[in-house]
Write a structure and sequence with these properties.
The complex is a heterodimer of chains A (385) and B (166). Chain A has 385 residues and is α/β, with parallel strands linked by helices. Chain A has two domains: 4-10 and 257-380, Alpha-Beta Complex (Aspartate Aminotransferase, domain 1); 16-251, 3-Layer(aba) Sandwich (Aspartate Aminotransferase, domain 2). Chain A is built from twelve helices and twelve strands. In chain A, the strands form three sheets. Chain A has a seven-stranded mixed β-sheet with strand order 2-8-7-6-5-3-4, with helices on both faces. Chain A has a three-stranded antiparallel β-sheet with strand order 9-10-12. In chain A, helix 4 (71-82) packs parallel to helix 5 (100-111), helix 8 crosses helix 12 (360-380) and helix 9 (305-314) packs across helix 12 (360-380). Chain A is globular and about 70 Å long. Chain B is 39% helix and 22% strand. In chain B, helix 2 crosses helix 5. The chains are: A alpha/beta (385), B alpha+beta (166). At the A-B interface, helix 9 of A face strand 2, strand 3 and helix 2 of B.
Chain lengths: 385, 166
């Protein structure tokens, strides 16, 4: 049975070119880049090349990119660092639909004495800029708004959000884990002070990511130690991971235009055919002004998402839902909740996320299987006739 | 797995003796259950519909299979371990999935008993002592005032209750 992987917002396959680029650093080239001797220090060049590859993808300067262990660490660095810069500015303002890496961190900081403001979104999952504006003031250290939402794919108005932050003298951070490599990003043009990204969302390896910090912004480090990354992020360089991230960023940059066009075409085709073939289905945030090319959440009225996932799984098709039943209590997606989607519908939501490797054939097969799965479960459901 | 792919006893019963709607989609699950009870007090027919995960669907299917033909009290006593055995094993973290089935069965039995009690009270208030009461039929002893019973039972609207003399 052929695997059809439509959960690329969760993680992606490592590109063969990335794996190839990484392999030497798991093998012969095991030196420590920070060593004095040439065996180790010769890796510096490769690491700086990776930094440059990421900078080009972001429109940043090379020295504005720092390597981390991934998106979650980058988010933690941004939030925990920002509230320590100025004792008179201890406020964080973020959105209701952030990834837990931001939202949970912000809540922890609130318990530690910071103030927290959570801006709302509209029914299309778009940031309410008036709500954001009402929460930002002279005590705000940081405004953190994700670039694109991981469930709905809705792209947030970053430039406007950054302007609101800057008008009050606050910094602006964006969790761009879902956006980078999927849609163009230009940190300088978008007025972004800090940006988080992750390698494994762009066909790179897991356990490595980066944070862009605008030149001139001095963030107290989250992780202290041996002064790697100019003291911003200590810890021995994860050479294979960093090289892999660099290569993944380069590939993402090269493929960006094609990827956007191809994924968008496939996703739109998928949406259209699902709506045609699955009664009771509708697309979440269908009317949002701007969405990622390859991510869509679809609600199948009257049927439970985990049952659908199980049946798809048995056919080798992998997607995801916002909730997990194994814990005994289900919390429907906070993103859909923030958008005002009712609980029943939130429990009927499935996310499909494409990649540049997704084919038309895979989309056709998925629609076909989905239609029969939905039909089968609707027969069992108390909510359908 | 088979009970998830091909759940048994899915659907609704026509004028069921007991009906329940439990859980709520807010917690992620819901179940509708219908039962019919025969003259001996056994579950003669059972049907369910559910909004739930694979575990909920399979355990509801197993519960209905196990309960069918059992006296009501015994059916209420079916344990999770029996459901797990019937399904050929179930991981412990999925045990909670079957809770809703038990609740639905219990609620359907309560609904059945309430309906019976209502009919019995009406008949007794009319001075009639029934032999056996079911939500859809009433047995009276020879010599009972059938016409009075028919008149009294008209109070219950929406249901057709047949009267037989034994």
């Amino acid at each position: 049975m052929k695997t059809i992987y439509l959960d690329n917002a969760a993680t992606t396959r490592v590109a063969p070119e990335v794996l190839e680029a990484m392999l030497p650093f798991f093998g012969d080239q095991y030196g420590n880049p920070s060593s004095f001797h040439n065996f180790g220090s010769s890796q510096k060049e490769a690491i700086e090349m990776a930094r440059g590859q990421i900078a080009r993808l972001l429109g940043a300067k090379t020295e504005e990119v720092y390597f981390t262990s991934g998106g979650t660490e980058s988010d933690n660095q941004a939030l925990r660092g920002a509230v320590k810069i100025d004792p008179t500015r201890r406020g964080i303002v973020t959105s209701a639909v952030e990834h837990p890496a931001v939202l949970e961190t912000a809540k922890v900081l609130e318990k530690e004495g910071c103030t927290l403001g959570i801006a709302s979104v509209n029914t299309e999952g778009e940031l309410d800029l008036d709500s954001l504006k009402g929460l930002v003031n002279q005590q705000t250290a940081l405004v953190s708004v994700m670039a694109a939402n991981n469930e709905t794919g809705v792209i947030m108005p970053m430039y406007e959000a950054a302007e609101i932050a800057h008008d009050e003298g606050a910094l602006f951070h964006t969790d761009a884990v879902q956006m980078v490599g999927k849609s163009p990003v230009d940190v300088h043009a978008m007025n972004i002070d800090m940006l988080s990204l992750s390698a494994h969302k762009i066909h790179g390896p897991k356990g490595v990511g980066a944070i862009y910090i605008r030149r001139g912004v001095i963030l107290p480090p989250l992780i202290t130690g041996g002064h790697q990354e100019r003291g911003v992020r200590s810890g021995t360089y994860n050479s294979p991971g960093i090289i892999g991230l660099g290569k993944a960023a380069e590939l993402a940059h090269t493929h960006l235009k094609d990827t956007v066009a191809a994924e968008r075409r496939l996703r739109e085709d998928f949406e259209k055919r699902v709506l045609e073939n699955c009664p009771g289905s509708f697309v979440v945030a269908a009317n949002a002004a701007s969405r990622l090319p390859g991510t869509v959440t679809i609600i199948f009225r009257g049927i439970e998402s985990e049952a659908v996932l199980t049946l798809l799984d048995m056919q080798g098709i992998y997607a995801s839902s916002g909730s997990a039943c194994s814990t005994g209590s289900k919390d429907p997606s906070h993103v859909l909740y923030a958008m005002g989607v009712d609980y029943t519908l939130a429990n009927s939501a499935l996310r499909f996320s494409l990649s540049r490797y997704t084919t038309e054939e895979e989309i056709s097969r998925t629609v076909e299987v989905l239609a029969s799965v939905v039909e089968r479960l609707r027969r069992i459901s108390p909510y359908t006739q | 797995m088979d009970h998830f792919m091909n759940p048994r006893n899915v659907g609704k019963l026509e004028n069921p003796d007991g009906h329940s709607e439990v859980g709520s989609p807010q917690c992620g699950d819901a179940m509708f259950l219908d039962i019919d009870i025969d003259d001996e007090g056994k579950i003669s027919d059972i049907a369910f519909k559910t909004f739930g995960c694979a575990g909920a669907i399979a355990s509801a299917s197993a519960l209905t299979e196990l309960a069918k033909g059992l006296p009501v009290e015994e059916a209420l006593g079916i344990r999770n371990s029996q459901i797990a055995d019937y399904l050929g094993g179930m991981p412990p973290e999925k045990f909670h999935c079957s809770v809703m089935g038990h609740q639905a069965l219990k609620a359907a039995v309560e609904n059945f008993r309430e309906k019976c009690a209502e009919i019995e009270k009406i008949l007794r208030d009319a001075g009639i002592t029934p032999v056996l009461v079911r939500p859809g039929r009433v047995y009276l002893s020879h010599g009972a005032d059938v016409a009075a019973a028919e008149k009294a039972l008209k109070e219950i609207s929406g249901r057709n209750i047949s009267i037989e003399v034994k």
